[in-house]
Model the fold of this input.
Amino acid sequence: MQRPHSPNQFSLTFSAQTPPASPALVLCPAHLLPGAVVALDDPILQISDMDIREYMRARFTYDEMLAELTAISHLAEKRRRYGSRAEMGLGGPRSYQDVGTAESVMDWMHEHELRRVNQIKLALQGSA
Done:
């Protein structure tokens, strides 16, 4: 008797996943947590790169998008100054200092924050 088999299906769209529960996150100051600026479950994160420009431009002003970009960058800078990647659930550094790439503030952003930065940059292209 054959059992029906359903192959694993993987989504081709971005999905912001909640970072794995880390015991270290309880040590992270509240103002530095992953959802401090961009909510982990923000539905805008699900919008494709092809559609995000029009979507964001229709709903946010240039100044609002720039303010969010600045807020994300400032949060990442605060994390960098705090200095404990493990407590913030960030894992190891993303950059490769051994080959000459300097650490940047983006190394201190969670994946969903990097996604939002990309979305804002796509929406800001050519506007002003």
